[in-house]
């Protein structure tokens, strides 16, 4: 099962980054961590719209936010899985948490879901502390765990009906099966589904309770490209219904396609929060124009690619040979952010 | 948004009914659990009844004696082994974690498990009694013996269910629970007067067996199936029904305390 594979590699990566974390010196303040090299630019408040920046650690939790986290810390032994994380997610928003294995994504999400304890910090999810919140609070959540829902002898429809019966105002199980594309598998037992179908069943179980806030921990792991596209349109239709979503993912295109804002988590902290198009200063990074001239490849970085291209067009009197205009991809900036032990 | 939070949660009774249905389907649709828990005692009865068909004296056949033991072993399998292995499996595959993330009342989960144990236990007892009567001329209990039968089975089943739930928390996963619990159950069956006459078990092993519920369940059930004359064969020279109730009751208390203290909805190191 792909999920178990992910789990295994997550542990390996966690061990690996312990070293990086210690080497970086845990005493470094947040501003130092952000004030470095290429992405210092983006993290400075002047460059990022105020609404998309990470909250300040000394501000109080926002009880009206869907999720509000301040100074969150959680250690596993000596390893700081989450090390001073601040996050606000507005109601109605789709927020994607990006980061390598072992960066603290799942720990953060599971603290918000009420599954894990925190060592310190403040957390409010739909206005309540997940560590003490009760059944009424849980009735407003939908949770799709990374590890999935386990084996079952029950059919998809039976599982959804049972799950629906725990909630005050559930969706119709058959409609939910339709939404996730499992209508044809309604009578098939949970354990007989393929990896991708199981994941869709997990998502179905997560949304059948009509959640206000939906957690999706690596929901599309094991999906083929077609299934991912279908899943994305499902997420968009849930957003249109006003569902707030916290999504963790390894797939940058997924974050870019779905999220209103993206947070990049590395070494237990949010290193950046931005709208996908502005992440890592992508929006303001120079474009790279390249073409072929006199048999040689020429490239030029410029803030005004349109002007350069029209100049080239004039110079060549029409088509510019092998013309390409590129911005840094999300992947470029992401790899730069997580690869740098600040 | 507040409308959702104000909306009343489904009744606990309704969710209990759902959980009972889920647990019964999970059990009866899984071939391994049906064969292991339901058929194993039946096969034992068929084999032992056919092979060890001798007279214990006073016109009492070994099968009549074995009936009490195999029912006790069946109850042990339906409760302790079933709970320990089943819940450990559900914990390691994430089923329990998933449930604890829903507004399902936690009590409903345990009610579902108890219903499962109850139905499986009744099924085992009925099948074993039917086979005994049809094939081996086993004499059914009569009059107040039925009352003793019911309270010994119920109390033993309760103690073993609680213990099984507690043991599930000690195991790393379903497979390791099975690997630990199955041999222990088998050893207990050997020394508790299930397969052999308890009076034939060496004294020190009788003492060991007396620490666990199985011996007391089997002894209580022997009082139901055997003529009172055979009470003299028991270690105490009587059926000791008062002590049967006391020991099984104590195990209920111990099991409950262990459950409350150790029950986890997710894998260790996951919280």
Automatic annotation (TrEMBL), chain A:
One of its GO terms (molecular function) is ATP hydrolysis activity. It comes from the Bacteria. InterPro entries: AAA+_ATPase, ABC_transporter-like_ATP-bd, ABC_transporter-like_CS, ABC_transporter_ATP-binding, P-loop_NTPase. Keywords: Antibiotic resistance, ATP-binding, Cell membrane, Membrane, Nucleotide-binding, Translocase, Transport. Residues 8-29 have a biased composition (Low complexity). It is a peripheral membrane protein. It is found in: Cell membrane. GO terms for biological process: response to antibiotic. This is ABC-2 type transport system ATP-binding protein. Residues 67-292 form the ABC transporter domain. Residues 1-29 are annotated as: Disordered. One of its GO terms (cellular component) is plasma membrane.
TrEMBL record, chain B:
One of its GO terms (cellular component) is ATP-binding cassette (ABC) transporter complex. Residues 32-266 form the ABC transmembrane type-2 domain. It comes from the Bacteria. One of its GO terms (molecular function) is ABC-type transporter activity. Pfam families: ABC2_membrane. One of its GO terms (biological process) is response to antibiotic. Belongs to the ABC-2 integral membrane protein family. The chain crosses the membrane at residues 34-52, 64-89, 110-136, 148-171, 183-205, 244-263. The lineage of its organism: Bacteria, Bacillati, Actinomycetota, Actinomycetes, Geodermatophilales. The keyword rRNA processing does not apply. It comes from Trujillonella endophytica. Keywords: Antibiotic resistance, Cell membrane, Membrane, Transmembrane, Transmembrane helix, Transport. It is found in: Cell membrane; Membrane. The keyword Transferase does not apply. InterPro entries: ABC2_TM, ABC2_TM_bact-type, ABC_2_transport, Nod_factor_ABC_transporter. This is Transport permease protein.
């Amino acid at each position: 099962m792909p999920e178990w594979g992910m789990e295994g590699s997550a542990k390996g990566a966690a061990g690996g980054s312990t070293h990086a974390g210690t080497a970086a010196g845990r005493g470094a303040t947040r501003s130092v961590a952000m004030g470095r090299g290429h992405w210092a630019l983006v993290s400075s408040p002047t460059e990022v719209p105020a609404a998309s920046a990470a909250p300040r650690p000394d501000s109080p939790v926002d009880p009206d936010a869907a999720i509000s986290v301040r100074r969150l810390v959680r250690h596993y032994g000596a390893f700081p899985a989450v090390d001073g994380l601040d996050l606000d997610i507005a109601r109605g928003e789709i927020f994607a948490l990006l980061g390598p294995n072992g960066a603290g994504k799942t720990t953060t999400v599971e603290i918000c879901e009420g599954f894990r304890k925190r060592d310190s910090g403040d957390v409010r999810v739909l206005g309540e502390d997940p560590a003490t919140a009760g059944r009424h609070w849980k009735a407003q959540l939908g949770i799709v765990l990374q590890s999935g829902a386990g084996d079952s002898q029950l059919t998809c429809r039976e599982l959804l009906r049972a799950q629906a019966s725990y909630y005050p105002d559930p969706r119709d199980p058959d409609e939910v099966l339709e939404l996730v594309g499992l209508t044809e598998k309604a009578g098939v037992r949970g354990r007989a589904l393929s990896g991708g179908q199981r994941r869709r069943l997990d998502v179905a179980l997560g949304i059948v309770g009509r959640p206000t806030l939906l957690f999706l921990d690596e929901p599309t792991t094991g999906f083929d490209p077609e299934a991912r596209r279908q899943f994305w349109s499902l997420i968009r239709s849930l957003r249109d219904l006003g569902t707030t979503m916290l999504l963790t993912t390894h797939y940058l295109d997924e974050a870019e396609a779905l999220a209103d804002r993206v947070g990049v988590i590395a070494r237990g902290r949010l290193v950046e929060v931005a709208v996908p198009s502005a992440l890592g200063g992508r929006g303001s990074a120079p474009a790279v124009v390249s073409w072929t001239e006199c048999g040689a490849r020429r490239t030029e970085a410029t803030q005004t690619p349109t002007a350069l291209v029209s100049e080239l067009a004039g110079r060549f009197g029409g088509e510019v040979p092998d013309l390409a205009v590129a911005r840094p991809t999300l992947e470029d900036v992401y790899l730069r952010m997580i690869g740098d032990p600040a | 948004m507040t409308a959702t939070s104000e909306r009343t949660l489904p009744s606990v009774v309704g969710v209990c009914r759902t959980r009972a249905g889920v647990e019964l389907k999970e059990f009866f649709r899984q071939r391994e659990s049906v064969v292991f828990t339901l058929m194993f005692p039946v096969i034992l009865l068929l084999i032992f009844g056919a092979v060890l068909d001798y007279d214990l004296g006073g016109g009492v056949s070994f099968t009549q004696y074995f009936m009490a033991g195999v029912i006790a072993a069946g109850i042990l399998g339906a409760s302790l082994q079933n709970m320990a292995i089943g819940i450990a499996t559900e914990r390691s595959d994430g089923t329990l974690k998933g449930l604890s993330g829903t507004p399902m009342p936690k009590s409903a989960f345990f009610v579902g498990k108890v219903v499962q144990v109850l139905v499986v236990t009744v099924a085992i007892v009925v099948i074993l009694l039917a086979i005994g009567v049809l094939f081996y001329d086993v004499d059914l209990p009569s009059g107040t013996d039925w009352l003793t039968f019911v309270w010994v089975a119920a109390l033993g089943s309760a103690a073993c269910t609680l213990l099984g739930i507690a043991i599930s928390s000690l195991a790393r996963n379903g497979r390791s629970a099975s690997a630990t619990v199955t041999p222990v159950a088998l050893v207990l069956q050997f020394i508790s007067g299930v397969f052999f006459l308890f009076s034939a078990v060496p004294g020190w092993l009788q003492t060991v067996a007396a620490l666990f519920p199985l011996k007391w369940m089997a002894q209580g059930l022997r009082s139901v199936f055997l003529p009172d004359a055979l009470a003299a064969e028991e270690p105490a020279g009587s059926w000791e029904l008062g002590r049967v109730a006391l020991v099984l009751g104590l195990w209920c208390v111990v099991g409950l305390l262990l459950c409350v203290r150790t029950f986890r909805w997710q894998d260790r190191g996951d919280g």
